């Protein structure tokens, strides 16, 4: 209920709902084909006929932005979801490990955290090779250390909590305490971070596509569209500006929503 009283959270939710429609059913927002080429209308500025203008081959930029949501945001969602699950499992196990083992494993995690996420993803793609699947895999691996660290911190805190101690005194086994009490609580706290992390993952995936390491033409993808329009900024700014605005808007919306959820979680724990 608190979330619905925040205008910025409501706007973010509505915008993300529209983006979700673009991902699932883009034909509801545009009747054009994102791959249709018409050289007779190439490089036309935004108009009533073409809301976001056309690109070098006459393709409708608005349509390509709408259809590009699936590829651009899909990678972010998959990477964040996979990182959340893997980070939860590894971080929880590290948090339950003996102190000496915890120290060794966390030094390795800290080493990965010292490398910026985008740079780490870039290194992984350089090793694996370009492609949308490899980008999703690289972005996932690059963000996992953050979730591992947070899951480990919450797990070690919960180990000393009263309700976990009470459960053990009642004779409840360690496996059941872990699955019924510790992991669900840690997951709820990681989910707030994941909401913010979706935007970061989308930005990383778009950056890798911009460098030509993701999907290839003529597939619609926001990072690829940015790359295709960077040389036309002086004469056809709309080719790069509108997919750039789409990336920016999604990142801001997920960040705003995530911060509101984190504030609500903090108030609930207070």
Encode the helix/strand succession as letters: HHHHHHHHH
Number of helices: 9
* Distance between the ends: 17 Å
Structural class: mainly alpha
- CATH level-four homologous superfamily name: MetI-like
Please estimate the helix content.
Answer: over 70%
Residue stretches low in confidence (pLDDT < 50, at least 5 long) are none
User: How is the main sheet built?
Assistant: none
Membrane topology: Multi-pass membrane protein
Subcellular location: Cell membrane
Domain ABC transmembrane type-1: 69-258
Pfam family, one: BPD_transp_1
Entry keywords:
about 270 residues; mainly alpha; MetI-like fold; about 0% strand; elongated; membrane; MetI-like_sf; cell membrane; ABC transporter permease
Quick description:
With 270 residues, this protein is mainly α. The protein contains 9 helices and no strands.
What features would you describe in this structure?
The protein is 72% helix and 0% strand. The two termini are 17 Å apart. The longest helix is centred in the C-terminal third of the chain and has 37 residues, at 174-210. The mean pLDDT is 87. Helix 2 runs parallel beside helix 5 (132-159), helix 4 (117-128) packs across helix 5 and helix 5 packs antiparallel against helix 7. By secondary structure, the chain is an all-alpha fold. The protein contains nine helices and no strands. It has one domain (62-269): Orthogonal Bundle (MetI-like fold), CATH 1.10.3720.
């Amino acid at each position: 209920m608190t979330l619905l009283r925040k205008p910025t959270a409501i706007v973010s939710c509505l915008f993300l709902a529209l983006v979700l429609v673009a991902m699932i059913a883009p034909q509801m927002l545009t009747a054009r084909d994102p791959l249709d080429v018409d050289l007779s209308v190439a490089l036309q500025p935004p108009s009533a006929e073409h809301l976001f203008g056309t690109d070098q081959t006459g393709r409708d930029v608005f349509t390509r932005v709408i259809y590009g949501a699936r590829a651009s945001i899909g990678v972010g969602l998959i990477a964040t979801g996979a990182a959340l699950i893997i980070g939860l499992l590894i971080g929880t196990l590290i948090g339950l490990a003996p102190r000496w083992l915890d120290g060794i494993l966390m030094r390795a995690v800290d080493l990965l955290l010292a490398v910026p996420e985008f740079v780490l993803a870039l290194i992984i793609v350089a090793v694996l090779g370009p492609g949308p699947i490899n980008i999703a895999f690289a972005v996932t691996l690059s963000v996992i250390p953050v979730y591992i660290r947070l899951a480990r911190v919450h797990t070690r805190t919960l180990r000393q909590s009263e309700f976990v101690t009470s459960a053990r005194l009642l004779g409840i086994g360690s496996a059941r305490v872990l699955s019924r009490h510790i992991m669900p609580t840690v997951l709820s706290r990681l989910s707030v971070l994941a909401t913010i992390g979706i935007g970061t993952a989308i930005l990383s995936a778009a950056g890798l596509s911009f460098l030509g390491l993701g999907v290839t033409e003529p597939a619609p993808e926001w990072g690829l569209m940015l790359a295709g329009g960077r040389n036309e900024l002086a004469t056809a700014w709309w080719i790069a500006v509108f997919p750039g605005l789409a990336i920016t808007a999604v990142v801001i919306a997920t960040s705003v929503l995530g911060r509101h959820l984190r504030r609500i979680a903090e108030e609930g724990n207070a």
